[in-house]
Predict the 3D structure of the following.
Amino acid sequence: MNPEGKIVMVDLAARSVKKYSPATGVIESFLGGRGFNSYYLLKYLDMGIKAFDPQNIIIFSPGLLTGTEAYSSSRLHISSLSPLTGFMGSSNVGGYLGAELRACNILSLVITGKAAEPVYLWIKNGRIQIKDASDLWGMKTSEARERIKNRSDQGAKVAVIGPAGENGVLMACIMLDRHAAGRTGMGTVMGSKNLKGIAVKASGKQRFSPSGKVKETLSHYLTKVKNAHAYEEYSKYGDSMAVKLVNDLGAGPVRNYRDVQSDEAESASGESFKDFPRTPSTCYRCPVHCRASLQIARGPHKGFKGERPPYESLANLGPKCGNFDATETIYLHNKCNEWGLDSVEIGGLIAFAMDLYDRGLITEENTDGLDLSWGNPESMEALIDKIAMREGWLGSVLAQGLEKASQSIGGKAEEYAYHVKGLAMTAMDPRGFKAAALGYAVSNRGADYTSVYAVAETNFSPERAIEMFGTDKAADRLQEEGKAKVVRNALSVSAVVDSLGICKIPQLSLLEDYDFQFSAELLSTIMGESVDEEDLFECGERIVTAERLFNIQQGLIKEDDSLPNKFLQEPIKEGASQGSVVNLDTMLNEFYSLMGWSPDGIPTEEKIKELGLAHLYPPRAERTSLDGR
């Protein structure tokens, strides 16, 4: 595979731009997007570098198919050493910026150094300029985005950070128009480099007129997506209905996981705002249209217009915080976007603070007078402001993220800080989803679902589970048997889909392409070279293992692959998941064995050689430059 394009290296300190061709074999081995990023971070980031060091790099890589004829080929992967976790920082985002970069002939944009003053990058048809952004510093994301467009081109696709990233808040995100590259603090890394934003415009973009085999493959793919049983719901409501669904399964995060369900869940879920005026939106060449802006039609925020939150944000800023008014959640989610904050992480932080407040472990003396009673929307809004500005004792403490905040508070606070590797848990109680539980534990970016995406445990039939994993229990979310195989498969599949640049909603939620039937066909047809399912599985395993090796270089040990004690020791007390608890060790040991890792979770020398990673690990005594010279 030899796609056109260059790797562009921007040194903000030296104000230099260099372009390179990818090294021989990198595309075949790592594809693009997430795979590219794992390769570069493992190969080129010096040991001992910290996230805020100017030498840290942040990488923006479109997927291998991003910007091509392929449907839903919008995805851009952003990676760095995470300031929040200290491990692999990684965020995958849709919209149009990835396709615009590819139209500018850029396979990967690698940024290092720290500018002497605030700047933004202006990329037009591949020409890159470093522009002054001093007057943009301090602006919220929507205003900064419009200012940059006014200075460059109204048709430009723009990524910006908000005040949170500028202030070093560890869970700051990057806003790409209304799409958030949310998790692991990638906006914080941009802020540490004095990089306010990136604007990209390509003229004369290719207009596709597929013919022959390509047209046939795309038509087949589109038909399958639109005939999927969940297509209509996703196209109208996204995944906003999942709040009630997970609640009814007895595995919600109610009041910081004190409870797994609530009778009020429907008012927190997408069902409660189906009647709101809605303007659908979409990403590059996506037929699903799962995004939308809403106008709140009732309550104190009536008339407010903003993005419809996805499931994770609805659940984390909603039931996890004891807030069952979805109109408040919509407003708070959009407030996070304006500050440039990861609304998932912020939901976890507020729920943690409310939990401590309810238990008397912090009081109004610690909160600058805020009443942090469960679900108090005024206090939630005020606390978001304080975190973004690192204002007051509590705002400054929470701006460090759950792990560091709980350590700073001390006492029993760490018992109620539900995270893995420093990343707040997403919105499902792992006791009710055993593959998700194992995925939380072993994910290379922390307690995360989307970089694993183990939907087989809920979506597969028993027959398909037997065929793929050898047991029908793999399709039973409350059983641990077969879950190591599910997670091994899901990790590889997720890594490949992120590296191809295809959105997971059509590819995995709708088509359930866990055997790479559609992925291999799409890639082979569009790239013009035969790629089979086994090739892709090996690529996925290589990418996941490269990320694991990077984390080991940063100090990862087996004990980091765990879950908070609550989920390992306390069975669920009621509901559809009653009695369930996570017996992690058996699943974890089987997973390590399947991956070719040692009992301590370290990839073996044989596995490293088998995957062609021996030239990247162990750490190099001699380091080459980016172009290999």
